């Protein structure tokens, strides 16, 4: 088994060498000012990545799933109504969590491959004259289907219905990779984890709260202890946690968030868009289709590629792993066996993406699918070509 190859799963993502080194550090006293010199800049950086001036940032030793739990338990009470679309495995799991916490979940069943139906949300919210719905939950990027939803449109739907519900957004596979606008979209809680756009190992839940969401915490009655943001706030005031923080991961997050901000968050977004465009060009050249039903919902962090009827897509993932030491993503839930996923988020370049596309071709050719070797690579290359900048030509 080789660890030389990049992974092409949509999280955990590839870890840059400098980030790995930053995670590997001697023990520091996590109640000392030294830890504060990691904690406070990390929170400021995350706020910038979210494109927010004022979001309150909390970082738990956990994963994205713990971020979901933080979002709902600090803002809602048993029996509260929430509105959410089910359009893939991740929205499905968030729905299940809400049900297990005793929330009344109004689910808008949505075909897997489509985005959140903002117009339907607007109708439902308009009809809710008693304002029973306390929160709208939205999965920005359905990692299972490679579908991005328009969170701005969800916010406009809420505003058009003049509805005061909170907007809780799962940005686990979008934040730090795709356009995410906490302030502009009026997001109340944003959730992510460390192992996707932030290019770290799994182990942190990263959440941002608006003032409005923060104001709910004293009346929200869902049970919580570990994820109570009030305990976290008290800790932060003393450079500390209510328990032991994952100091190495926090230090890694300082480095990785610095990297994102040094590159420029809009440049990071543009890089993901460019790489995704190349991957999609390859998929078209193979004569295959994405699970995403239309170009507006195509994700720039993961492509879910439908395999021919009767062919078990899991074979692609198994063969790639066992023969070429390359990881692709399997189909989850409803689309299990029907698609495979190429993750293209985090620490990735055009050149790395080409190696993944080339490997997918070899795997599909080995398995007897009708693929012309090089067809997808060439299509991606054409989309990646940048020409010769005029300036450089003069200098040479
Ligand atoms: C990965 C992912 C999650 C779950 O995060 P964990 O860190 O595995 O708990 C939730 N939502 C989306 C959209 C994801 O991609």
Q: Can you offer a commentary on this structure?
A:
- With 396 residues, the chain is α/β, with parallel strands linked by helices.
- It has two domains: 17-262, Type I PLP-dependent aspartate aminotransferase-like (Major domain) (Aspartate Aminotransferase, domain 2), CATH 3.40.640; 265-386, Aspartate Aminotransferase, domain 1 (Alpha-Beta Complex), CATH 3.90.1150.10.
- The protein has helices spanning 17-23, 33-49, 64-73, 89-100, 118-127, 151-160, 211-214, 229-237, 247-263, 265-285, 314-324, 350-366, 375-384, 390-395, and strands at 56-61, 81-86, 104-109, 133-139, 141-142, 147-148, 166-170, 189-193, 204-209, 289-290, 302-306, 339-343.
- The strands form three sheets. A seven-stranded mixed sheet has the order 1-9-8-7-4-2-3, with helices on both faces.
- The chain is globular and about 60 Å long.
- The N and C termini lie far apart (43 Å).
- The model has no long low-confidence stretch (mean pLDDT 97).
- The structure holds pyridoxal-5'-phosphate (PLP).
- Pyridoxal-5'-phosphate (PLP) is lined by residues 11, 63-65, 90, 139, 141, 143, 170, 172-173, 193, 202.
Number of helices: 14
CATH class of the largest domain: Alpha Beta
Shape, principal axes of CA atoms: globular
Order of helices and strands: HHEHEHEHEEEHEEEHHHHEEHEHHH
In percent, how much strand structure appears in the residues? 5-15%
Backbone structural class: alpha/beta
Rg over CA atoms: 21 Å
- Give the CATH superfamily of the largest domain: Type I PLP-dependent aspartate aminotransferase-like (Major domain)
Mean pLDDT: 97
Question: Looking across the biggest beta sheet, what order are the strands in?
Answer: 1-9-8-7-4-2-3
